[in-house]
Design goal:
Radius of gyration: 29 Å
Strand content: under 5%
Largest sheet: none
Order of helices and strands: HHHHHHHHHHHHHHHHHHHHHHHHHHHH
Structural class: mainly alpha
Shape: globular
Distance between the termini: 69 Å
Number of helices: 28
Helix content: over 70%
């Protein structure tokens, strides 16, 4: 064969790149959605409403374009996928319905809109079929993008000055770019598992496998900079799930050995950043530089090692019998390593019963039992989560059928807490589901998740070898989000949740599909006239049903767009008012009034307006704004406290006592509320200015 004949022309190369898009046209809008999720990852993991609400409109538009351009034969969609989409739609409808009984309807609307976003994402990725190549393109692109972002974060830390480091990695724990250490770690580890599980496949080019393996090391090390204990336990659980449930255990182990070696080689330098702070509590720039060098060196070496091994494998240097012997040898080493790890872990941990008792004690008692020397990662389970879960379960017991309403945990926790924490969310997707949507929501979630897993399991057994690889890798990313999210509030980070639902949807899209059956009424010969008449009637009925479906779909899309748009625009007005109030208070008030009109359920515009009025000493206006806030959310402890303090400042002791006693019932552990109530009971006046200075100081300390 001549050299010219062996070379591909530019048109042929372009055709090869476009082949996955031709096989699965829905890949293009899915790629756009994944790009959106990566953008969210660069700034607070998509947590702010002003980030994910407009993104939801983009996903809604992508879904509409896909329906219009590609079309959808609902008969060809596998039954488990239909059930999963239907259950998620039912969960979304329940979340919207919970606005009717939620004590904070504005928060319930926001929670319902977030569920709407996840429904749109899952539908976009799950309803249209994917092939192995197109799915690999989607998952590989997202994984490589997250690896690139992790590399940027590491380099950005190394180049940052001392002042910037205090913001990026306060107390030696990386919060950038998610803004929350545990979400930050989860963001990288959600991409770690697809990178690892893709890199083990001989279906991918050897160079790409090396890049993915090196990227897995990079992702794990950047996650380790956050020193998230939840990520440590979630990773251990993931290892069990991967080896217990996914095929290809020997290949997984063979790849995991060098990847773990690379992570272990750089880990001491990475952990040194958070474990050896300066006397002022700041990280040492030299430690950051050493960690960065170690991270990239480990990733490079492991990438080259894995690439070399993959090249040897793909060039078939070994005979079939030799490959089988190698396979058996690796399996034997894996078993020996497993036994060694178990024995070594038990020896290091000491008495397992005492370790379990210590873990339960630190989990139940909280932070006070968790102050030990050494790395934070092995300092116990101390946090306030035990108390969060206690209140969540109590609320589920009190409202078992439909729960307390989406995103309505905070008020209930303030009233019943035993800790000093003030969480907005229960810090667990399971506890959130139980407390906020009750048995009905839990049933919908379980059935929907089960159906999606059934569809993904079919994809794992599908005829396309590359498709099977992608399903396993996508399930790895989703499973990490679900496992770690069982002990944290990742549902509320749209950047994490959207990526997780996209990964699960991609796994469902690879389930084998059966072409729609032909119309059995089609006939020939003597029944021609009857068949023609029946066919004409069928076409008429089908056209009518199609028009009805389009009409209902347009109405639903319009309502969804309005539901996403109104709170988003309202929040923009609030943020604008917060920027201009020091020099233009009247403009700020006007924008807050617009915000209240755009979102008729939220009390936030009135709370902000009342706080601004207090800063200018306008007690009458402040009291009026807080009263409006309480009309929308009668159980708001802050607005009640402020109205009580204003009444006391104005000398209205009787009214102040009524309001402050109510504020104390709404938030009994708040020391400022108790102090204000004590002053009022003693016949003294509460100084509203001093009270708000204390509130501001507490807020700054928590931040």
């Amino acid at each position: 064969m001549s050299t010219s004949a062996s070379r591909r022309t530019p048109d042929e190369a372009a055709g090869g790149l476009l082949a996955p898009l031709r096989e699965a046209p829905a890949t293009v809008p899915a790629l756009v959605a994944l790009a959106l999720f990566v953008v969210w990852a660069t700034s607070q993991a998509g947590y702010p409403l002003t980030h994910w609400a407009p993104g939801g409109l983009i996903v809604l538009g992508l879904l509409g374009i896909t329906l219009g351009v590609v079309g959808l034969d609902i008969r060809a969609v596998p039954l488990p996928v239909k059930i999963a989409v239907g259950c998620l739609a039912g969960y979304m409808a329940l979340s919207f319905a919970s606005i009717l009984w939620a004590k904070v309807p504005g928060d319930a609307w926001e929670g319902a809109n977030r569920t709407l976003l996840y429904l749109l994402v899952f539908a976009l990725f799950a309803l249209w079929p994917q092939r192995g190549r197109s799915a690999a393109l989607l998952l590989g692109t997202w994984t490589l993008a997250m690896m690139g972002l992790a590399a940027y974060v590491a380099l950005h830390l190394d180049a940052a000055g001392a002042g910037s480091l205090q913001l990026l990695i306060p107390g030696g724990r990386l919060v950038y770019p998610a803004g929350y250490v545990n979400a930050n770690a989860a963001m990288w580890l959600m991409a770690f598992w697809p990178a690892l599980l893709l890199a083990r496949s001989e279906r991918l080019p050897w160079g790409l496998r090396g890049v993915l393996a090196g990227g897995a090391v990079l992702l794990a090390e950047v996650a380790l900079l956050s020193q998230s204990r939840g990520s440590l336990f979630a990773t251990a659980a993931m290892l069990v799930l991967v080896f217990a449930l996914l095929p290809g255990r020997v290949r997984t182990f063979a790849l995991l050995v060098p990847v773990v070696a690379g992570i272990g080689a750089a880990a001491p330098a990475v952990l040194h950043v958070g474990d050896h702070l300066q006397q002022n509590g700041l990280v040492q720039p030299a430690a950051i530089h050493s960690a960065t060098v170690a991270i990239f060196a480990a990733a490079l070496v492991i990438g080259l090692v894995v690439a070399a091994g993959a090249a040897i494998e793909q060039r078939r240097f070994f005979s079939a019998s030799a490959a089988k012997r190698i396979h058996r040898s690796v399996a034997s080493v894996a078993i020996i390593a497993l036994v060694a790890i178990v024995v070594g872990g038990l020896a290091a941990a000491g008495n397992p019963v005492k370790r379990i008792e210590h873990g339960w004690h630190t989990f139940k008692v909280g932070y006070s039992a968790d102050r030990t020397s050494g790395s934070r990662l092995v300092s116990g389970l101390g946090s306030a989560r035990y108390d969060f879960y206690r209140v969540a379960l109590d609320e589920f017991a009190a409202h078992p059928l439909v729960g307390i309403g989406a995103d309505n945990f905070q008020q209930q926790y303030l009233a019943h807490r035993r800790s000093e924490e003030t969480p907005h969310y229960p810090h667990s997707v399971e506890m959130r589901t139980l407390a906020e949507t009750g048995l009905i929501g839990s049933l919908l979630a379980l059935v929907g998740l089960g159906a999606a897993l059934v569809a993904a399991a079919r994809g794992l057994r599908g005829p396309d070898p590359l498709g099977r690889v992608v399903v396993a890798a996508a399930l790895g990313g989703f499973a990490y989000w679900a496992v770690h999210g069982s002990v944290d509030w990742f549902w509320e980070f749209a950047g994490l949740g959207s990526s997780a639902f996209a990964l699960m949807g991609l796994a469902c899209a690879l389930a084998p599909r059966t072409p729609a059956a032909a119309d059995p009424r089609a006939g020939a010969g003597g029944v021609g006239r009857v068949a023609a008449a029946s066919s004409a009637y069928g076409r008429w009925r089908s056209a009518g049903l199609r028009r009805l479906t389009i009409g209902v779909g347009l109405c639903a899309a319009t309502l969804a767009a309005l539901s996403l748009t109104a709170p988003w625009l309202s929040q923009l007005e609030i943020e604008s008012a917060a920027r201009v109030w020091p020099h233009a208070p009247q403009t700020a008030y006007a924008r807050l009034n617009d915000a209240a009109s755009l979102n008729p359920l939220s009390d936030e515009p009135y709370l902000v307006a009342g706080s601004i009025a207090l800063r200018f000493g306008d007690l009458a206006r402040a009291d009026h704004e807080f009263a409006l806030a309480l009309e929308r959310s009668p159980g708001d402890a802050y607005a009640t406290l402020e109205r009580g303090a204003i009444a006391s400042t104005e000398g209205n002791r009787r009214r102040a006592l009524v309001l402050l006693e109510r504020a104390a019932r709404l938030n009994p552990r708040d020391p400022l509320t108790r102090q204000a109530l004590q002053l009022a009971r003693e016949g003294k006046r509460v100084n509203v200015d001093e009270l708000n200075r204390s509130i501001l100081l507490n807020a700054q300390q928590l931040a």
